[in-house]
């Protein structure tokens, strides 16, 4: 597949979508893949999580969806193997506008299509609600990663999500597939084990072997505008996300990753000559 587009999705909030999107994107970038991270959540958590301050942003995913004539490059922030199309709170308004526009939910797919030439892989972080933005992600994506937190109620929303996915498959995006279910926020409780067993029972090999453990370093990193690989490259969080990256590459037929943990260097800089700030500290 030429530059797979992977959406990290689950309509439940707080399950580790953003944490997974940014750290998986960075882990893949460390494997010498050229990765684009697309923030599709009006909260802009992924944007801030890789060190871009919302107030410094000129063009974001909002403008790209809204104005078809605007060059997509004007919203791309370039980093070291990891580029970003950011999101800001304006995206909530754009989502409301989308309801009234014909085929607005296909716009993201059309906008990202030409970028497949330039990247090895595109990762989309999605909002925690069904709606035009979520549908845009489901239309743009080839594969989904579904993070599932290790709580008792974790599996309850999955059926609903799969109903939406089937709807999109039958309609506008027949090639969409769930690449895998990822257990997140794992702590040493029986509930985490039970959730994992139930996931395996339901989805078998689609469940990633890698589990993302709950860790303080993973929770601290976004507030510093750093991925785990810059904040704590030797931590269990970094190890877990490298494990996930390896499985993702295998599932995509991109060869098994040669894990290189020695290059924690990301410096997102403004794209397209725009004067936009970056916060790393
Ligand atoms: N493995 C983890 N260990 C510790 N904290 C985590 C972990 N994954 C996510 N978090 C924290 O949990 C909260 C929700 O995670 P987030 O990735 O933002 O979820 P979502 O995008 O699904 O809402 C955030 O504060 C995040 O920092
Ligand atoms: Mg999020």
Characterize the structure shown.
It is built from eleven helices and six strands. By secondary structure, the chain is an alpha/beta fold. It has a single domain, classed as 3-Layer(aba) Sandwich (Rossmann fold), CATH 3.40.50.300. Strands 3-2-4-1-5-6 form a six-stranded parallel beta sheet, sandwiched between helices. Bound molecules: adenosine-5'-diphosphate (ADP) and magnesium ion. Adenosine-5'-diphosphate binds next to α1 and α9. The site of adenosine-5'-diphosphate has 17 residues, from α1 and α9.
Range of helix content: 25-40%
What small ligands are held by the chains? adenosine-5'-diphosphate, magnesium ion
Overall average residue pLDDT = 91
Distance between the termini: 37 Å
Give the overall shape, derived from the CA principal axes: globular
Q: Indicate the multimeric state.
A: single chain
Topology:
Layout: E1 5-8, H1 17-29, E2 35-39, H2 45-49, H3 61-66, E3 82-85, H4 90-98, H5 107-112, E4 121-125, H6 132-140, E5 143-149, H7 158-170, E6 177-184, H8 190-203, H9 216-220, H10 228-231, H11 236-251
Parallel strand pairs: 1-4, 1-5, 2-3, 2-4, 5-6
Helix pairs in contact: 1-11
Adenosine-5'-diphosphate binds next to helix 1 and helix 9.
